[in-house]
Structures are given as C-alpha cells and as structure tokens.
Backbone:
C-alpha cells in the first residue's frame, strides 16, 4: 500500500503510462497557476496548464513537461492525465532549434476559424514554454 | 513422365507459398502483440477519464456540452470507416464493408445528406468500385496509429459538429472484445452518448472534490478529451483486430498449404511409381518381342 508520507504519482497520456511511482511531492501547472501537492492534500480535480511538472522523490528532483489535461488528487494518489508528457532530461540535443522552427511556423500560420486560432495559440504557448524550460537547464 | 513433372512443379509452388504465408503469420503475430500492448497502455487513460467523469457526476452537475447535444433533425451524417491498407486478412474488411453497405442503404432511404470518410486502401478500393463519393481518404493509419494523428482528426470532427457542419458522426470499425472475438460494429461518435453510463464501471466512492477552476470548466475540457480518447481507442482496436484477422487468415492458409503438400506428394509418388511400372513393362515387352 501507499506509504503515509508518500504520494502515489501516476502520469498517463493517451498512448502510455509515463510514471507510476511513489514520490514526496509534486508541483505542476494548473490552468491559472502552479500548484504544489504534498501528502494528505484535500481531494481535488483540476485542469492542467502547459508547463513543468516537478517531481520530488527520495532520489531527488526531476522535471517533466506536461501539455494540458487534468489532475486528480484522491487520498494520497495523484493522477495526471495529459495529452503529452515528456522527460525534460532526455530531450535530444538540437530540439531547441526545432522548437523555435515550430514556433515560427505556428506564428505565421493562417488561422480563421476559432478552432484554428485556438490551436495556433496552443502551439505557440507550448513551444514557447518548452523552449523556456530547456534553456533553464 | 510429363505428369510427374507437372505435379512436382505444383508441389514446389505450394511449398513456396507456404513459406510466405508462414512468414506473414509470424509477422502478424509480432505486430499483433505490439498493437495489443499499445492498446493496453492506452486503456489506463480511458479508465482515468471515466473515473473523473464519475467524480464530476457525483458533484451533481448537469452535463451540458455542445458535443453531448443530440440534434432533433439529423440531416447531415458523416460516416467514418476504418479498413486496412493491405489485404490478406480474411473477412476483416468485408465484414466492415458489409455494415457500411447496410448503413448507406439506410441513409439513402431516409434521404440524408451523407459524407463518407474512409481510412485504409481496401475501403477506398471498395468505394471506388461501388461509385461512392469519398469526402476524405486516409491511408496513413497503419498498425501504429499515434495519438497526434487521431487528435487532429478528432479536433476537426468536434469543430465540424459544434458549428453545425454535421449532425451526427458514425464510425464503422472492428471492435476488439477478446483475442478470439472481434466484431465489426457501427457506433455513434458524435453526439457523445452515455458519457455517464460508461463511468458506471468506475469506482463509486464519492469524496468531496474541489474543482479548480470550476466543475464547469473541467467539463468543458473533459468532454472533448473523452471523445478523443474514445476515437483513439477505436483506432487501436481496429489495428489490433486487423493483425489478429491477418494472423488467423495466414494460419489457415499455411494449414491448407500443408494439406495440399501432403496430397500432392502422394500423387507425385503414385505417378512416379506407375511411370516406372509402365517403363519396366515396356522393356520386358520389348525384350520378349526380340526372342
């Protein structure tokens, strides 16, 4: 069972389960700002934003990138459902340049319908945040 | 002599075909295992979505979302068909196309405005043959559909549905029940039905949730996410079913080839024996005539 002072963190994307482990605390972006979760948090369901997921486990800190979705906190179980999640440490070299390219592409893309505009905004946000996170390292 | 040689030629051909079908069976088995693993991985997401839906419904929220609304007049119907790109998979494509045929007839009698979207070369060949206009064709979904690809499709459908471009979206694909049971089915993709019903299997423990920023905002995001996850699952199901169908078909073909090799070998041996006998009797006859 789950240790009293630990959180069971599960990160799932539609394609796979990225993480399923016990951690001390997690921090992740909600739609309107960052939230930190420690053991014994009140039950919560939230909308995830785009940004960095910081996992603190007994082995140290690790950071991941999450792209929208939901967070559910229930007892000491934290579940993040996200469209895309990746380990920042394992991002290949040169991906910063590709992100810049993708950002420029999104910036110059023509968007007319509300859906297209939203998609463009999302792509821009996503690439900008990923770039920022990569440059921090 | 000629007969025995003709049989041997056929025997060689059958043996070659057996090698090919056997290899294809092995490939299909390997692909099927991979596809099944992917489907199993993806299931965690759908299960969690269902759980959150259950949590939301316990919050006594009225489920209203554009994607959930059923239209009174379903004038424009979009049908998406998932077939395979390659053949040699038994009845996989034909059972899907049979359902498509039925559905098309139904829609025609009701004089609905239909647009047909087909994924897979087999389905495209069928619609070309029967003269059906295909609005959009996809051939890039192989045995490993990625979420990004499906997401693109789902986003377009959701938008089309919300702005009134279509009133209903049907999906025809092969549903994966178990390894030994896959059924071609027609399901309604949009409007999203029984979102809450699907969640009944999820945990029923109710706890007081805090919704950030609000339950309504989560619902707004959740319904499209559930729809996308569902479409993605259908694609994965179709991929798994295709590989199973191909494996079964190729297994049957290999077994048939084995049987044929057996009968052909017997026939060859008989032909060879009778040839030797007749040659011998000719020699003996010739020798007897000389005496």
Residues:
């Amino acid at each position: 069972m789950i240790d009293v002072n630990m959180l069971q963190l599960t990160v799932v994307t539609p394609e796979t389960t990225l993480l399923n482990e016990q951690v001390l605390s997690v921090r992740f972006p909600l739609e309107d700002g960052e939230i930190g979760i420690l053991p014994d948090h009140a039950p919560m369901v939230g909308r995830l934003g785009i940004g960095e997921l910081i996992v603190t486990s007994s082995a140290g800190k690790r950071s991941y990138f999450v792209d929208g979705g939901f967070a559910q906190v229930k007892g000491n179980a934290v579940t993040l459902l996200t469209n895309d999640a990746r380990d920042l440490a394992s991002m290949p070299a040169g991906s910063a340049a590709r992100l810049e390219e993708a950002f420029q592409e999104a910036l110059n893309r023509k968007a007319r319908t509300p859906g297209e505009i939203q998609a463009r905004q999302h792509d821009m946000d996503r690439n900008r945040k990923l770039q920022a996170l990569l440059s921090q390292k | 002599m000629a007969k025995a040689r003709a049989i041997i030629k056929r025997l060689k051909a059958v043996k070659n075909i057996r090698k090919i079908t056997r290899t294809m069976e092995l490939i299909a088995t390997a692909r099927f295992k991979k596809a099944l693993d992917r489907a199993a991985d993806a299931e965690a997401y759908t299960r969690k979505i269902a759980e959150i839906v259950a949590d939301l419904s316990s919050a006594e929220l009225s489920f209203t979302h554009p994607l959930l609304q059923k239209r009174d007049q379903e004038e424009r119907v979009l049908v998406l068909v998932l077939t395979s790109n390659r053949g040699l998979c038994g009845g996989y494509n034909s059972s899907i196309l049979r359902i498509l045929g039925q559905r098309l007839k139904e829609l025609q009698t009701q004089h609905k405005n239909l647009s047909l979207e087909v994924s897979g070369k087999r389905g495209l060949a069928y619609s070309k043959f029967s003269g059906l206009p295909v609005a959009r064709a996809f051939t890039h979904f192989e045995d490993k559909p990625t979420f990004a690809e499906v997401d693109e499709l789902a986003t377009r459908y959701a938008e089309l549905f919300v702005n009134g471009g279509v009133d209903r979206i049907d999906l025809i694909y092969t549903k994966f029940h178990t390894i030994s049971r896959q059924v071609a089915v027609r399901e309604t993709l949009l409007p999203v039905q029984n979102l809450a019903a699907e969640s009944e299997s999820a945990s029923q423990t109710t706890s007081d949730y805090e919704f950030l920023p609000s339950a309504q905002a989560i619902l707004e995001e959740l319904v499209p996410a559930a729809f996308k996850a569902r479409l993605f699952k259908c694609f994965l199901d179709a991929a798994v079913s295709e590989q199973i169908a191909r494996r079964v078909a190729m297994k049957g073909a290999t077994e048939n080839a084995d049987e044929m090799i057996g009968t052909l070998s017997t026939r060859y041996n008989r032909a060879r024996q009778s040839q030797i006998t007749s040659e011998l009797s000719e020699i003996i006859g010739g020798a007897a005539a000389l005496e």
